[in-house]
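Notes from hallway chat w/ T.B., transcribed later so I don't forget. T.B. wanted the structure written out for a chain they're using in a teaching module, and asked if we could keep both sequence and C-alpha cells in one place. Agreed to drop them here.
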Amino acid sequence: MENIIANALKENLKIKEDFVKKNTSKLIEFAQYLSNAFRNAKKLMICGNGGSAADAQHLAAEFVNKFELDRSPLPALSLTTDTSIITSVANDYGYEDVFSKQIEALGVRGDILLAISTSGRSPSVLAAIRTARKKGVYTVGFIGGDGGDMLRLVDLPFLVESEHTPRVQEVHILAGHLICELVEHILFHKNPSEN
C-alpha cells in the first residue's frame, strides 16, 4: 500500500510538471483571453461528465465567488448542475444534447466554453463544442490521453498526456486553479506597468 501511494505521487508530480512546462504560455494566453471576455460582459460556460462535471462546478464557483482575492463576482456557470434541464433534454432528445441545448439557449458570440473530457471522446461534450462554434463561442478543451476528437475541434486545447484518468483529472484541476489565479491577478491585482 505504501508503494501504491508513492507511485501515485511520483506519477502525479511528473505529469503535472510536464504539463506546466508545455502549457505555460497557453495558460497565460487563455487567462488573458478570459479576462478580456469578462471585461466585455461575456461569460464562461463549463461542461463535462462524471468527475469532469464536478470540476466544472468547482471552477464555476471559484469564478463566481472568489479564488484567493475578495473581489467582484465573475460570470461563469457550470452546465452540469440543472437536473431539470439535463433530465428533460436527456429524456426528450438524448443525453448527447444536454450541454449543447444549454449553449444554444444561453451562449452568445464572444462567450467562452471550457469543455472537459479525460478522453476527448465524450459525445455530449463534443456536441457542446460543435454548437458553441456555430454560435461564435470560443472553445477551450481540458483533455487527456491522445486528445480524441476534441484535440482538433477546440480553439485552444490543453492536453494532459496520460491515459490514467485520475492523473488527468488531477492536472485538469491544477490547470483550472492556475487560470483562476491568473485571471484574478490580471483583473484585480495587476500593476498596469507589468506585462
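Follow-up for T.B.: The chain has seven helices and five strands. Might be a good example for the class.
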